[in-house]
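HUMAN: Mind sharing a backbone?

ASSISTANT:
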Amino acid sequence: MACTGRLKNVRLETMEIKPSFEAKADIKRLIAACAQNAGEPALGQHIKTAHWDLMESYLQPTTMSQAQVLITKGANDRAVYFVESGSLTVHMEDSTGKVRLAVVGPGSAVGEGSFFSHAPRRATVQAVAESQVWVMTPIRYSEMCNRQPAAALAVAMALGGLLASRAMDKRRRISIT
C-alpha cells in the first residue's frame, strides 16, 4: 500500500466525527478480537486472516468517545461496524428513558440488519466507553465485491451468520440494528 496515512474520522450518515489523520491503522487488533469472541463467533469463523488483509482497504477505522452515538434509531444509513475494542449499547427509548437491549463488545459487529435489509435502523447504538470500530459502507462493500469477491463473500457469510444467530435468540433478536 502506498498510503502511509489514513483519514481517521469522517462524517458518516448518522455519526458526526471530527476529521483528522493518523498513522495507518493496524487491522491485526480487530482480527484478534474476532478470533477471541466466543459469544458471537460468526466473524471469526467465516472471515479468515487472508480475507481481513484484503478487506483492510475497504474499512475505515474510527475511535468513538464515551457516550458517542454511532447509530440512531430510524436512520436510513446502511453502514456496518466491526468492533475492535470497547463496548457499545444497543437501546431504544421509551417514555421512561433508555431501555438497553444488548451490549456489543470486541470481535462483533453492529448494523447488520440495515446493511442487508435497506430498512431504517431499529435501535440506537452508543459507546459505553472509548471504543475502536471499523466502518464498512455499502459503497465500499460494492467495490470489494467487484475487486475481492472471496473476501466480500466471507463478509456476507459472517454477517449473515451473526444476523441468523441473533434472530434465533429471542433475547438478542430485538438488538438487530
Remarks:
- Residues 39 and 108 are 9 Å apart (CA to CA).
- The chain has one domain: 27-173.
- The mean pLDDT is 84.
- Helices lie at 28-36, 42-46, 49-55, 112-117, 138-147, 149-168, 170-173.
